[in-house]
Design goal:
The protein is an alpha+beta fold. Helix content is about 30%, strand content about 20%.
Protein backbone atom coordinates (compact mmCIF):
# COMPACT_ATOMS: atom_id res chain seq x y z
CA UNK A 1 0.00 0.00 0.00
CA UNK A 2 1.29 3.46 -0.90
CA UNK A 3 2.09 5.48 2.19
CA UNK A 4 1.20 9.13 2.76
CA UNK A 5 4.49 11.02 2.43
CA UNK A 6 3.31 14.61 1.97
CA UNK A 7 5.93 14.79 -0.76
CA UNK A 8 5.42 16.09 -4.27
CA UNK A 9 7.91 14.45 -6.62
CA UNK A 10 8.77 15.83 -10.03
CA UNK A 11 11.71 15.79 -12.43
CA UNK A 12 13.76 18.90 -13.12
CA UNK A 13 16.72 18.69 -15.50
CA UNK A 14 17.71 15.10 -14.84
CA UNK A 15 17.02 15.12 -11.11
CA UNK A 16 14.04 14.13 -8.97
CA UNK A 17 12.90 17.01 -6.79
CA UNK A 18 11.06 16.05 -3.61
CA UNK A 19 8.99 18.98 -2.39
CA UNK A 20 8.14 18.34 1.25
CA UNK A 21 6.09 20.45 3.61
CA UNK A 22 4.62 22.69 0.91
CA UNK A 23 1.06 23.93 1.26
CA UNK A 24 -1.61 22.34 -0.90
CA UNK A 25 -2.11 25.71 -2.57
CA UNK A 26 1.57 26.57 -3.14
CA UNK A 27 1.93 27.61 -6.76
CA UNK A 28 4.55 26.20 -9.08
CA UNK A 29 5.89 29.73 -9.55
CA UNK A 30 6.36 30.36 -5.84
CA UNK A 31 8.11 27.02 -5.33
CA UNK A 32 10.45 27.57 -8.29
CA UNK A 33 11.44 31.03 -7.13
CA UNK A 34 11.47 30.71 -3.36
CA UNK A 35 12.66 27.14 -2.85
CA UNK A 36 14.63 26.26 -5.98
CA UNK A 37 15.79 29.83 -6.70
CA UNK A 38 14.83 29.51 -10.35
CA UNK A 39 14.25 33.24 -10.57
CA UNK A 40 14.22 33.37 -14.35
CA UNK A 41 10.52 32.53 -14.10
CA UNK A 42 8.79 35.82 -13.26
CA UNK A 43 5.56 36.88 -11.62
CA UNK A 44 3.78 39.57 -13.57
CA UNK A 45 0.02 39.39 -13.16
CA UNK A 46 -0.49 36.21 -11.07
CA UNK A 47 -3.56 35.62 -13.27
CA UNK A 48 -2.20 33.69 -16.25
CA UNK A 49 -2.50 36.71 -18.53
CA UNK A 50 0.97 38.19 -19.05
CA UNK A 51 3.04 35.06 -19.73
CA UNK A 52 6.12 36.10 -17.74
CA UNK A 53 5.85 32.86 -15.75
CA UNK A 54 5.57 30.38 -18.64
CA UNK A 55 7.32 27.04 -18.13
CA UNK A 56 7.06 23.68 -19.88
CA UNK A 57 5.39 20.82 -18.00
CA UNK A 58 6.07 17.34 -19.35
CA UNK A 59 4.53 13.88 -19.09
CA UNK A 60 5.63 10.54 -20.46
CA UNK A 61 4.03 9.91 -23.83
CA UNK A 62 1.69 6.97 -24.29
CA UNK A 63 4.51 4.71 -25.47
CA UNK A 64 6.84 5.76 -22.65
CA UNK A 65 9.53 6.68 -25.17
CA UNK A 66 9.48 10.45 -24.88
CA UNK A 67 8.06 13.46 -23.09
CA UNK A 68 5.04 15.47 -24.21
CA UNK A 69 5.22 19.11 -23.14
CA UNK A 70 2.65 21.85 -22.70
CA UNK A 71 3.39 25.51 -22.07
CA UNK A 72 1.98 26.35 -18.65
CA UNK A 73 1.42 29.47 -16.57
CA UNK A 74 3.35 28.62 -13.41
CA UNK A 75 1.65 31.41 -11.46
CA UNK A 76 -1.73 29.64 -11.36
CA UNK A 77 -0.68 25.99 -11.31
CA UNK A 78 -0.69 24.31 -7.92
CA UNK A 79 2.50 22.49 -7.02
CA UNK A 80 0.90 19.12 -6.07
CA UNK A 81 -0.45 18.81 -9.62
CA UNK A 82 3.20 18.38 -10.74
CA UNK A 83 3.51 15.07 -8.88
CA UNK A 84 4.80 12.46 -11.34
CA UNK A 85 5.63 14.99 -14.05
CA UNK A 86 8.63 16.99 -15.22
CA UNK A 87 9.25 20.68 -15.68
CA UNK A 88 11.55 22.85 -17.76
CA UNK A 89 12.33 26.46 -16.88
CA UNK A 90 14.35 29.03 -18.81
CA UNK A 91 17.41 27.89 -16.83
CA UNK A 92 16.92 24.40 -18.29
CA UNK A 93 17.87 25.68 -21.74
CA UNK A 94 21.54 26.23 -20.88
CA UNK A 95 23.69 23.65 -22.65
CA UNK A 96 26.51 21.71 -20.99
CA UNK A 97 29.06 23.86 -22.80
CA UNK A 98 27.35 27.05 -21.63
CA UNK A 99 25.75 27.84 -24.98
CA UNK A 100 22.15 29.03 -25.30
CA UNK A 101 19.14 27.60 -27.08
CA UNK A 102 18.72 28.92 -30.66
CA UNK A 103 15.63 30.89 -29.57
CA UNK A 104 17.72 32.69 -26.94
CA UNK A 105 20.58 33.32 -29.34
CA UNK A 106 18.31 34.87 -31.94
CA UNK A 107 16.46 36.95 -29.34
CA UNK A 108 19.86 38.52 -28.59
CA UNK A 109 20.84 38.99 -32.22
CA UNK A 110 17.43 40.41 -33.24
CA UNK A 111 17.26 42.73 -30.21
CA UNK A 112 14.10 41.01 -29.02
CA UNK A 113 14.48 42.15 -25.42
CA UNK A 114 14.74 45.51 -23.65
CA UNK A 115 13.88 45.52 -19.95
CA UNK A 116 13.96 41.71 -20.10
CA UNK A 117 11.29 41.02 -17.49
CA UNK A 118 8.96 39.27 -19.94
CA UNK A 119 11.74 37.65 -21.99
CA UNK A 120 12.04 34.30 -20.13
CA UNK A 121 8.32 33.63 -20.60
CA UNK A 122 8.50 34.59 -24.27
CA UNK A 123 11.47 32.28 -24.77
CA UNK A 124 9.67 29.37 -23.09
CA UNK A 125 6.52 29.87 -25.18
CA UNK A 126 8.61 29.75 -28.36
CA UNK A 127 10.74 26.81 -27.22
CA UNK A 128 7.58 24.89 -26.39
CA UNK A 129 6.23 25.60 -29.88
CA UNK A 130 9.34 24.32 -31.66
CA UNK A 131 9.25 21.01 -29.80
CA UNK A 132 6.45 19.97 -32.16
CA UNK A 133 6.60 22.57 -34.95
CA UNK A 134 10.07 23.31 -36.31
CA UNK A 135 8.79 25.08 -39.42
CA UNK A 136 6.17 27.48 -38.07
CA UNK A 137 4.35 29.97 -40.23
CA UNK A 138 4.16 33.55 -38.99
CA UNK A 139 0.61 32.87 -37.77
CA UNK A 140 1.87 29.92 -35.72
CA UNK A 141 4.48 32.16 -34.09
CA UNK A 142 2.04 34.93 -33.27
CA UNK A 143 -0.45 32.40 -31.88
CA UNK A 144 2.29 30.94 -29.67
CA UNK A 145 3.05 34.45 -28.40
CA UNK A 146 -0.56 35.49 -27.86
CA UNK A 147 -0.23 34.88 -24.12
CA UNK A 148 2.97 36.88 -23.70
CA UNK A 149 2.76 40.62 -23.09
CA UNK A 150 5.81 42.73 -23.90
CA UNK A 151 5.41 46.36 -22.98
CA UNK A 152 8.63 47.85 -24.35
CA UNK A 153 10.21 45.85 -27.17
CA UNK A 154 7.47 45.39 -29.71
CA UNK A 155 6.83 42.02 -31.28
CA UNK A 156 8.50 42.29 -34.69
CA UNK A 157 12.04 41.46 -33.48
CA UNK A 158 10.63 38.65 -31.33
CA UNK A 159 8.82 37.12 -34.31
CA UNK A 160 11.95 37.54 -36.43
CA UNK A 161 13.99 35.79 -33.73
CA UNK A 162 11.60 32.83 -33.71
CA UNK A 163 11.77 32.47 -37.48
CA UNK A 164 15.58 32.64 -37.55
CA UNK A 165 15.90 30.17 -34.69
CA UNK A 166 13.97 27.61 -36.71
CA UNK A 167 16.75 27.62 -39.31
CA UNK A 168 18.74 25.57 -36.76
CA UNK A 169 16.31 22.66 -36.62
CA UNK A 170 18.72 20.11 -35.19
CA UNK A 171 19.27 22.21 -32.06
CA UNK A 172 15.62 23.02 -31.25
CA UNK A 173 14.73 19.87 -29.31
CA UNK A 174 15.19 20.12 -25.57
CA UNK A 175 17.46 17.35 -24.28
CA UNK A 176 15.34 15.36 -21.86
CA UNK A 177 17.03 11.98 -22.21
CA UNK A 178 18.07 12.02 -18.56
CA UNK A 179 14.48 12.74 -17.51
CA UNK A 180 12.90 9.67 -19.10
CA UNK A 181 14.04 6.98 -16.62
CA UNK A 182 13.25 9.29 -13.72
CA UNK A 183 9.74 9.96 -14.99
CA UNK A 184 9.20 6.21 -15.15
CA UNK A 185 10.49 5.93 -11.59
CA UNK A 186 8.08 8.51 -10.15
CA UNK A 187 5.14 7.66 -12.39
CA UNK A 188 1.92 7.68 -10.40
CA UNK A 189 0.05 4.42 -10.01
CA UNK A 190 -2.66 3.77 -12.58
CA UNK A 191 -4.67 1.51 -10.26
CA UNK A 192 -6.44 2.49 -7.04
CA UNK A 193 -5.19 1.59 -3.59
CA UNK A 194 -7.49 -0.92 -1.88
CA UNK A 195 -7.99 -1.65 1.80
CA UNK A 196 -7.95 -5.20 3.17
CA UNK A 197 -11.76 -5.08 3.00
CA UNK A 198 -11.65 -4.21 -0.71
CA UNK A 199 -12.63 -0.55 -0.28
CA UNK A 200 -11.00 2.18 -2.34
CA UNK A 201 -8.49 4.38 -0.50
CA UNK A 202 -7.64 7.58 -2.36
CA UNK A 203 -4.13 8.39 -1.19
CA UNK A 204 -3.41 12.09 -0.77
CA UNK A 205 -0.42 13.80 -2.33
CA UNK A 206 -0.50 16.28 0.54
CA UNK A 207 -2.43 16.07 3.83
CA UNK A 208 -2.44 18.62 6.64
CA UNK A 209 -2.61 17.92 10.37
CA UNK A 210 -6.24 19.07 10.24
CA UNK A 211 -7.05 16.37 7.69
CA UNK A 212 -7.28 18.68 4.68
CA UNK A 213 -6.03 17.01 1.51
CA UNK A 214 -4.85 17.34 -2.04
CA UNK A 215 -5.60 14.09 -3.85
CA UNK A 216 -4.69 13.01 -7.35
CA UNK A 217 -6.66 9.87 -8.31
CA UNK A 218 -5.90 7.77 -11.37
CA UNK A 219 -9.30 6.19 -12.02
CA UNK A 220 -12.91 7.22 -12.38
CA UNK A 221 -13.88 4.87 -9.57
CA UNK A 222 -11.59 6.74 -7.19
CA UNK A 223 -13.08 10.09 -8.22
CA UNK A 224 -16.62 8.86 -7.67
CA UNK A 225 -15.84 7.23 -4.34
CA UNK A 226 -14.02 10.25 -2.94
CA UNK A 227 -16.71 12.74 -3.98
CA UNK A 228 -19.46 10.69 -2.34
CA UNK A 229 -17.45 10.78 0.89
CA UNK A 230 -16.34 14.42 0.49
CA UNK A 231 -19.03 16.16 -1.61
CA UNK A 232 -17.64 19.69 -1.00
CA UNK A 233 -14.31 18.81 -2.62
CA UNK A 234 -12.93 21.39 -5.04
CA UNK A 235 -12.26 19.77 -8.41
CA UNK A 236 -9.07 20.91 -10.10
CA UNK A 237 -8.35 20.39 -13.79
CA UNK A 238 -6.50 23.21 -15.55
CA UNK A 239 -6.33 25.48 -12.47
CA UNK A 240 -7.21 28.49 -14.63
CA UNK A 241 -10.03 29.33 -12.21
CA UNK A 242 -8.83 27.81 -8.92
CA UNK A 243 -5.41 29.40 -9.38
CA UNK A 244 -7.04 32.82 -9.56
CA UNK A 245 -9.03 32.15 -6.40
CA UNK A 246 -5.85 31.09 -4.59
CA UNK A 247 -3.84 34.12 -5.73
CA UNK A 248 -6.46 36.84 -5.66
CA UNK A 249 -8.96 35.70 -3.03
CA UNK A 250 -6.51 33.67 -0.90
CA UNK A 251 -8.79 30.65 -1.17
CA UNK A 252 -7.68 27.56 0.76
CA UNK A 253 -10.15 24.74 -0.03
CA UNK A 254 -10.28 21.94 2.54
CA UNK A 255 -10.21 19.16 -0.04
CA UNK A 256 -8.79 19.50 -3.55
CA UNK A 257 -8.98 16.77 -6.16
CA UNK A 258 -6.78 16.98 -9.26
CA UNK A 259 -8.34 15.23 -12.28
CA UNK A 260 -5.39 15.45 -14.66
CA UNK A 261 -4.21 11.89 -14.03
CA UNK A 262 -7.57 10.15 -14.58
CA UNK A 263 -7.20 8.29 -17.86
CA UNK A 264 -10.94 7.86 -18.48
CA UNK A 265 -11.51 11.60 -18.15
CA UNK A 266 -8.74 12.44 -20.62
CA UNK A 267 -10.18 10.43 -23.49
CA UNK A 268 -12.25 11.37 -26.51
CA UNK A 269 -14.39 8.60 -27.99
CA UNK A 270 -16.88 8.82 -30.82
CA UNK A 271 -19.80 7.21 -32.55
CA UNK A 272 -21.31 8.03 -35.92
CA UNK A 273 -23.34 10.81 -34.31
CA UNK A 274 -21.42 12.26 -31.34
CA UNK A 275 -18.04 12.90 -29.80
CA UNK A 276 -17.78 11.98 -26.13
CA UNK A 277 -15.28 14.39 -24.62
CA UNK A 278 -13.89 13.47 -21.19
CA UNK A 279 -14.01 16.06 -18.44
CA UNK A 280 -10.22 16.44 -18.31
CA UNK A 281 -9.74 16.95 -22.06
CA UNK A 282 -8.04 20.30 -22.67
CA UNK A 283 -9.40 23.10 -24.82
CA UNK A 284 -6.41 22.67 -27.13
CA UNK A 285 -7.52 19.10 -27.82
CA UNK A 286 -11.12 20.19 -28.39
CA UNK A 287 -9.90 22.92 -30.73
CA UNK A 288 -8.19 20.33 -32.92
CA UNK A 289 -11.14 17.93 -32.66
CA UNK A 290 -13.75 20.32 -34.06
CA UNK A 291 -11.52 22.26 -36.48
CA UNK A 292 -12.96 20.68 -39.63
CA UNK A 293 -16.54 20.22 -38.49
CA UNK A 294 -17.10 23.55 -36.71
CA UNK A 295 -14.42 26.11 -37.70
CA UNK A 296 -16.29 28.96 -35.98
CA UNK A 297 -16.16 27.02 -32.70
CA UNK A 298 -12.42 26.54 -33.20
CA UNK A 299 -12.00 30.29 -33.68
CA UNK A 300 -13.93 31.01 -30.48
CA UNK A 301 -11.66 28.55 -28.66
CA UNK A 302 -8.54 30.13 -30.18
CA UNK A 303 -9.61 33.46 -28.72
CA UNK A 304 -10.61 31.92 -25.39
CA UNK A 305 -7.14 32.47 -24.00
CA UNK A 306 -3.45 31.97 -24.66
CA UNK A 307 -1.87 28.62 -25.58
CA UNK A 308 -0.76 28.04 -21.94
CA UNK A 309 -4.35 28.59 -20.81
CA UNK A 310 -5.92 26.43 -23.52
CA UNK A 311 -3.42 23.62 -22.99
CA UNK A 312 -4.50 23.24 -19.37
CA UNK A 313 -8.09 24.56 -19.20
CA UNK A 314 -10.83 22.03 -19.90
CA UNK A 315 -14.22 22.17 -21.57
CA UNK A 316 -15.88 20.63 -18.50
CA UNK A 317 -14.17 23.15 -16.24
CA UNK A 318 -15.50 26.07 -18.27
CA UNK A 319 -18.99 24.57 -18.11
CA UNK A 320 -18.87 23.77 -14.39
CA UNK A 321 -17.54 27.22 -13.53
CA UNK A 322 -20.72 28.60 -15.11
CA UNK A 323 -19.54 32.15 -15.75
CA UNK A 324 -22.26 34.33 -17.34
CA UNK A 325 -19.68 35.17 -20.02
CA UNK A 326 -18.27 31.67 -20.51
CA UNK A 327 -17.35 31.40 -24.19
CA UNK A 328 -17.76 27.70 -24.93
CA UNK A 329 -21.31 27.32 -23.64
CA UNK A 330 -23.19 29.25 -26.38
CA UNK A 331 -21.44 27.11 -29.02
CA UNK A 332 -22.23 23.89 -27.19
CA UNK A 333 -25.86 24.89 -26.59
CA UNK A 334 -26.40 25.81 -30.22
CA UNK A 335 -25.00 22.42 -31.19
CA UNK A 336 -27.27 20.53 -28.79
CA UNK A 337 -24.55 19.25 -26.45
CA UNK A 338 -25.38 17.14 -23.40
CA UNK A 339 -23.52 16.44 -20.17
CA UNK A 340 -22.95 13.04 -18.61
CA UNK A 341 -23.20 13.58 -14.85
CA UNK A 342 -21.95 10.97 -12.42
CA UNK A 343 -22.44 10.30 -8.72
CA UNK A 344 -21.03 7.08 -7.33
CA UNK A 345 -21.71 4.40 -9.93
CA UNK A 346 -24.81 6.11 -11.35
CA UNK A 347 -24.88 8.46 -14.34
CA UNK A 348 -27.50 10.64 -15.93
CA UNK A 349 -27.57 12.79 -19.03
CA UNK A 350 -28.60 16.47 -19.00
CA UNK A 351 -28.82 18.79 -21.96
CA UNK A 352 -26.50 21.74 -21.44
CA UNK A 353 -29.29 24.23 -22.01
CA UNK A 354 -31.07 22.69 -18.99
CA UNK A 355 -27.95 22.63 -16.80
CA UNK A 356 -27.91 26.13 -15.29
CA UNK A 357 -30.43 27.32 -12.73
CA UNK A 358 -28.95 30.77 -12.04
CA UNK A 359 -25.66 32.63 -11.80
CA UNK A 360 -23.02 29.96 -11.20
CA UNK A 361 -25.76 27.57 -10.11
CA UNK A 362 -26.63 24.27 -11.75
CA UNK A 363 -28.55 21.05 -11.37
CA UNK A 364 -25.69 18.94 -9.98
CA UNK A 365 -26.33 17.23 -6.68
CA UNK A 366 -23.75 16.98 -3.85
CA UNK A 367 -21.03 14.54 -4.86
CA UNK A 368 -22.02 14.69 -8.55
CA UNK A 369 -19.56 15.76 -11.25
CA UNK A 370 -19.30 16.12 -15.02
CA UNK A 371 -17.89 12.91 -16.45
CA UNK A 372 -18.11 13.85 -20.13
CA UNK A 373 -19.62 16.16 -22.72
CA UNK A 374 -21.46 14.65 -25.67
CA UNK A 375 -21.14 16.89 -28.71
CA UNK A 376 -23.23 16.02 -31.77
CA UNK A 377 -21.42 15.79 -35.08
CA UNK A 378 -22.71 17.93 -37.97
CA UNK A 379 -25.53 16.60 -40.12
CA UNK A 380 -26.03 17.16 -43.82
CA UNK A 381 -27.00 20.75 -44.59
CA UNK A 382 -26.34 22.03 -41.08
CA UNK A 383 -25.05 25.59 -40.75
CA UNK A 384 -23.14 26.56 -37.60
CA UNK A 385 -21.92 30.07 -36.93
CA UNK A 386 -20.39 31.65 -33.84
CA UNK A 387 -18.64 34.87 -32.97
CA UNK A 388 -17.19 36.49 -29.86
CA UNK A 389 -17.29 40.26 -29.36
CA UNK A 390 -14.73 41.75 -26.98
CA UNK A 391 -12.70 44.93 -26.62
CA UNK A 392 -9.43 43.14 -27.48
CA UNK A 393 -9.29 40.45 -30.11
CA UNK A 394 -6.89 38.19 -28.19
CA UNK A 395 -7.32 37.05 -24.61
CA UNK A 396 -10.23 39.20 -23.53
CA UNK A 397 -13.49 38.61 -21.73
CA UNK A 398 -16.62 38.65 -23.86
CA UNK A 399 -19.05 41.49 -24.10
CA UNK A 400 -21.14 38.75 -25.65
CA UNK A 401 -20.60 35.57 -27.62
CA UNK A 402 -23.34 34.19 -29.83
CA UNK A 403 -23.75 30.91 -31.68
CA UNK A 404 -26.42 29.52 -33.99
CA UNK A 405 -27.19 26.23 -35.68
CA UNK A 406 -29.83 25.68 -38.38
CA UNK A 407 -30.64 24.02 -41.65
CA UNK A 408 -32.59 25.29 -44.66
CA UNK A 409 -35.76 23.60 -45.86
CA UNK A 410 -37.19 25.05 -49.05
CA UNK A 411 -35.03 28.08 -48.38
CA UNK A 412 -36.49 28.63 -44.91
CA UNK A 413 -34.67 28.48 -41.58
CA UNK A 414 -35.34 25.22 -39.75
CA UNK A 415 -34.27 23.66 -36.45
CA UNK A 416 -32.87 26.97 -35.22
CA UNK A 417 -30.83 26.90 -32.01
CA UNK A 418 -29.48 30.29 -30.94
CA UNK A 419 -27.51 30.85 -27.73
CA UNK A 420 -25.70 33.72 -26.04
CA UNK A 421 -23.50 34.59 -23.11
CA UNK A 422 -23.41 37.99 -21.40
CA UNK A 423 -27.15 38.64 -21.67
CA UNK A 424 -28.37 36.71 -18.62
CA UNK A 425 -27.06 35.41 -15.27
CA UNK A 426 -25.84 32.31 -17.13
CA UNK A 427 -25.24 31.36 -20.77
CA UNK A 428 -28.55 30.38 -22.32
CA UNK A 429 -30.62 29.59 -25.37
CA UNK A 430 -32.86 32.35 -26.73
CA UNK A 431 -36.16 30.61 -27.59
CA UNK A 432 -38.03 33.82 -28.40
CA UNK A 433 -35.39 34.82 -30.92
CA UNK A 434 -35.38 31.29 -32.29
CA UNK A 435 -39.15 31.61 -32.82
CA UNK A 436 -38.62 34.80 -34.82
CA UNK A 437 -36.19 32.98 -37.10
CA UNK A 438 -37.85 29.55 -37.35
CA UNK A 439 -39.66 28.94 -40.64
CA UNK A 440 -38.68 32.30 -42.11
CA UNK A 441 -36.89 33.04 -45.33
CA UNK A 442 -33.62 34.70 -44.25
CA UNK A 443 -34.50 37.81 -46.24
CA UNK A 444 -37.81 38.14 -44.37
CA UNK A 445 -36.25 38.37 -40.89
CA UNK A 446 -36.72 41.88 -39.51
CA UNK A 447 -34.34 43.61 -37.11
CA UNK A 448 -37.30 45.11 -35.23
CA UNK A 449 -38.71 41.65 -34.52
CA UNK A 450 -35.38 40.50 -33.12
CA UNK A 451 -35.13 43.66 -31.01
CA UNK A 452 -38.56 42.98 -29.56
CA UNK A 453 -37.65 39.36 -28.82
CA UNK A 454 -34.45 40.44 -27.05
CA UNK A 455 -36.37 42.95 -24.93
CA UNK A 456 -38.91 40.26 -24.02
CA UNK A 457 -36.24 37.64 -23.25
CA UNK A 458 -33.72 39.41 -21.05
CA UNK A 459 -33.56 41.90 -18.20
CA UNK A 460 -31.61 45.00 -19.21
CA UNK A 461 -28.33 45.12 -17.27
CA UNK A 462 -25.31 47.35 -17.74
CA UNK A 463 -22.01 45.67 -16.91
CA UNK A 464 -18.30 46.36 -16.65
CA UNK A 465 -17.68 45.01 -20.14
CA UNK A 466 -20.52 46.77 -21.97
CA UNK A 467 -23.76 48.65 -21.53
CA UNK A 468 -27.03 46.81 -22.06
CA UNK A 469 -27.81 48.96 -25.11
CA UNK A 470 -24.55 47.81 -26.71
CA UNK A 471 -25.02 44.14 -25.83
CA UNK A 472 -28.61 44.12 -27.09
CA UNK A 473 -27.57 45.72 -30.36
CA UNK A 474 -24.70 43.27 -30.81
CA UNK A 475 -26.99 40.32 -30.01
CA UNK A 476 -29.41 41.39 -32.73
CA UNK A 477 -26.70 42.16 -35.29
CA UNK A 478 -24.97 38.83 -34.75
CA UNK A 479 -28.23 36.98 -35.38
CA UNK A 480 -28.66 38.91 -38.61
CA UNK A 481 -25.04 38.35 -39.57
CA UNK A 482 -25.38 34.61 -39.06
CA UNK A 483 -28.18 34.32 -41.63
CA UNK A 484 -26.97 37.05 -43.99
CA UNK A 485 -24.96 34.62 -46.12
CA UNK A 486 -28.18 32.77 -46.91
CA UNK A 487 -29.79 36.04 -47.95
CA UNK A 488 -26.91 36.71 -50.33
CA UNK A 489 -27.17 33.21 -51.82
CA UNK A 490 -30.89 33.60 -52.43
CA UNK A 491 -30.26 36.99 -54.03
Amino acid sequence: MTQVTNTVRFVLDGQIVEAQGARRTTTVLDYLREQLHRTGTKEGCAEGDCGACVVMVGELNAAGTGVDYVATNACIQLLPSLDGKSIKTVESLKQADGSMHPVQEEMVKCHGSQCGFCTPGIVMSLVNMVQTNTSPARQDITDALSGNLCRCTGYVPIIDAAAKACEKKSALKVDDSADLPLLKEIKRSSVPTMSLEGDIIVQPVVRTKKGNEFVSPATLAEVSDYLVKHPTTTLLAGSTEIGLQVNKQFARPDHIMYLGNVKELRQVTETDKVWRIGAAVSLTQVEALVAQAYPDFTEVLRRFGSPPIRSTATLAGNIANGSPIGDTMPCLMALGASLVLRRGDKTRKVRLDNFYTGMKKNVMEPGEFIEAIELPKPVAGQVFRAHKVSKRFEQDISATCAAISYTLKDGKLSGVKLAYNGLAPSPCRAPKLEAVLEGKLPADVKAADLDAAIAASFTARDGLRATWAYRALVARNLALEFIEEQTKEVA
